[in-house]
Amino acid sequence: MIKQINTAKIKRIIKVIVAFSLVMIGFAWNWAVVFFALLVLNIKTLYRALLGKLPLDVPDESFFGPESHIYKREGNANLKLDIFYPKEGLTVSENYPVVFFAHGGGWISGSRRQANNISWCRYLASKGFAVVNIDYRFGYLSQIDDILRDYADALDFIRKQAEEFKIDSSRIALMGLSAGGHLSLFHATYNSYWKKVENMEGIKCVVAWYAPSDLMDLWDDDVESLFARFAVAATLKGLPTKKKENYIHYSPINWVSERMVPTFLVHGSADKVVPVKSSIKLFKRLMEFNVPSVLKIYNGADHAFEFELKTPKTIRFIEETVEFIRSHV
What residue ranges are annotated as transmembrane (predicted)? Predict the structure, then answer.
């Protein structure tokens, strides 16, 4: 038993040292080299992200898009979003309810144009929603506040252009995968906690698949992913030993209140990137404040399981996600 505990501690120390070393190399030398090394170490997750698709057929005639728009300019870069629309279902006078979708990638990678994200957007659009799929700045060159500001600015952009885009800005569901789920949860918990009514305008619910609600969980012994540790350390500019206040502040679980909107959480019990306890803890916290919430756990499933496990249970979780959104927007 003592030997097992010592081995676990040694492994944890090694992972912390490696993550810290990679962050230092990135800041002092070359982020591209570090990023490439991490991608090689996380090839399975990368495969799901680049080539993964939902286990559901979506006929091309059931949606149209994407229509691309620049929602803001930062320096020399244009930040864009895509909008997917249902093909049929509304009269001329109606506007579409919105799913505001944020991709994953540990805040330091990913794109709205990845196959897995497009797969979700096509499916949701085929179910009657206008799906707004955003890009945002990355944490290795920007601050976490910059990323959160991009998220909020993209929301403001579609609200202001609602009539032009034929969307109903009073019926918005926030949705994200992994780090994108964190952004969605943080925006909703933080702004509802502080009664920032304008920032919460039109937001009716949140959906987060395998998202970290407590950023300290990414340093848990159950997390095998070096990428997860590196990503959060790079984004928050330090390890929890030095930047613990940042890990606490940017964790959605610490901003839950009775004003939080209904929340739908999905996680795999064998997630090696974001431990399932992060969603379990958040669900319990939401229940403490009587926030209408649902938690779905897939036993034995890993991170981003919906792109790998083509099972009836996966399909049921996806369909229940749509039912939840539809019941609130």
Answer: 12-41
